[in-house]
């Protein structure tokens, strides 16, 4: 007896009165479309080519390439490889950075290779003759740090060992998405093989050159290799030059003299977070460029260099840091340096807010790092 339900009839009238005509789908999506399928014989006129918010996520909607494919399998060549390092068992405070690579990809959904011309520079890193791809994540064990780092070493070796797509230089460069900061050690071991000792520009609120005897190593040799000591170890292994620089430092040290003396011995100078108040972003750019002049450079960005207001989702947050704009201005200002590898690490999505503030920031940091690579192809030892 549906006729006796008057509200249902009323609803039907309302529904037809409110019928909405949407604009054509292709009209909205076209600028970010990949392959134009509007002429497809299956359903002509309907464009289903854009992958912006659809499909499996890759960093900046870049093509996924199975860079870790086994011997004999064909791998599409690339010049810049995005590589996830889901590892967080080397942290001293809040864990969770093993989900960082997934989170940063999520934060990068808005970035599209064909819609990325900067209003500041008119450049688009993805259209400058270098092929950038997402290699996915390295399978790393979460039960044994020694094994995990060996797995990461091996992945870097394989991925940087393939021949680049561009003809100018042969070695592809890697942008690692961390993962806790321990993962940078594997990246530096890999860059050493292709470029020798490099200067490190280390954006962080912490030194990360701690002597393993001071941080963890008193417990066991194994414990001494962690996200606060990896730069000390990189120095010990002869991977980095004594022309390296920290930027954004503000966290306390464990003693009056030793940590800072040890830091100097590891080859670093320090630009502190509050130096920005005195010399500004232009001063930072000048000092960083001056310090690494004439050498190959690795940039490591610990997202905790930002103030927790801009990057709450990290393991060892320190207040009194920079804004996202300040960091991006400094990074973009480094254009022209010979960047041979880079990373953005310590992103632990679980501590982010619903607006994904940290993930958006980390995705844009990676974008700036890719731009620096696109701006300056670099010759390797074997070129
Ligand atoms: C990759 O290499 C091929 C062959 O040299 C070239 O045609 C193509 O433009 C390159 N891709 C990119 C994105 O540069
Ligand atoms: C830096 O390293 C170079 C070359 O290895 C060396 O000649 C120089 O003495 C070192 N400088 C300092 C301050 O340690
Ligand atoms: Mn760090």
Automatic annotation (TrEMBL):
Pfam families given in the database record: Arginase
PROSITE patterns with a match to the protein in the record: ARGINASE_1 (PS01053), ARGINASE_2 (PS51409)
SUPFAM superfamilies for this protein: Arginase/deacetylase (SSF52768)
Classification via InterPro entries: Ureohydrolase, Ureohydrolase_dom_sf, Ureohydrolase_Mn_BS
Names of required cofactors: Mn(2+)
Gene Ontology biological-process entries: putrescine biosynthetic process from arginine, via agmatine; spermidine biosynthetic process
UniProt keyword list: Hydrolase, Manganese, Metal-binding, Polyamine biosynthesis, Signal, Spermidine biosynthesis
Signal sequence range: 1-17
A molecular-function term among this protein's GO annotations: metal ion binding
Family: Belongs to the arginase family.
Protein name according to UniProt: Arginase
Species assigned in the record: Zasmidium cellare ATCC 36951
Lineage start: Eukaryota, Fungi, Dikarya, Ascomycota, Pezizomycotina
């Amino acid at each position: 007896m549906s006729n006796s339900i008057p509200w249902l009839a009323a609803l039907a009238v309302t529904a037809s009165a409110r019928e909405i005509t949407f604009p054509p789908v292709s009209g909205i999506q076209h600028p970010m479309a990949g392959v134009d399928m509007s002429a497809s014989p299956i359903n002509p006129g309907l464009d289903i080519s854009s992958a912006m918010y659809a499909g499996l996520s890759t960093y900046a909607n870049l093509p996924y390439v199975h860079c870790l494919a086994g011997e004999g399998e064909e791998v599409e060549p690339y010049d810049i490889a995005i590589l996830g390092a889901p590892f967080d068992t080397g942290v001293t405070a809040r864990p969770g950075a093993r989900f960082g690579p997934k989170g940063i990809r999520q934060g990068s959904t808005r970035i599209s290779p064909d819609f990325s011309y900067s209003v500041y520079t008119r450049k688009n890193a993805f259209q400058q003759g270098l092929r950038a791809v997402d290699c996915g994540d390295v399978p790393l064990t979460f039960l044994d740090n020694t094994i995990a780092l060996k797995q990461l070493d091996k992945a870097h070796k394989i991925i940087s060992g393939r021949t680049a797509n561009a003809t100018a230089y042969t070695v592809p460069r890697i942008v690692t998405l961390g993962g806790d900061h321990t993962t940078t050690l594997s990246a530096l071991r890999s860059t050493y093989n292709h470029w020798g000792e490099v200067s490190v520009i280390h954006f962080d609120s912490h030194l990360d050159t701690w002597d393993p005897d001071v941080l963890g190593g008193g417990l066991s040799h194994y414990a001494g290799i962690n996200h606060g000591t990896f730069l000390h170890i990189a120095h010990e292994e002869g991977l980095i030059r004594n022309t390296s620089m920290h930027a954004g430092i503000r966290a306390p040290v464990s003693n009056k003299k030793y940590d800072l003396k040890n830091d100097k011995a590891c080859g670093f100078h320090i630009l502190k977070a509050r130096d920005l108040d005195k010399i500004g972003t232009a001063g930072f750019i000048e000092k960083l460029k001056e310090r690494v002049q004439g050498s190959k450079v690795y940039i490591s960005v610990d997202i905790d260099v930002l103030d927790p207001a801009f990057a709450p989702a990290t393991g060892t947050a320190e207040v009194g840091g920079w804004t996202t704009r300040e960091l991006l201005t400094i990074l973009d200002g480094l254009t022209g340096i010979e960047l041979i590898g880079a990373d953005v690490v310590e992103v632990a999505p679980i501590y982010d807010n619903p607006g994904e503030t940290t993930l958006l920031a980390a995705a844009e940091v990676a974008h700036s790092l890719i731009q620096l690579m696109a701006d300056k192809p670099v010759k390797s030892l074997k070129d």
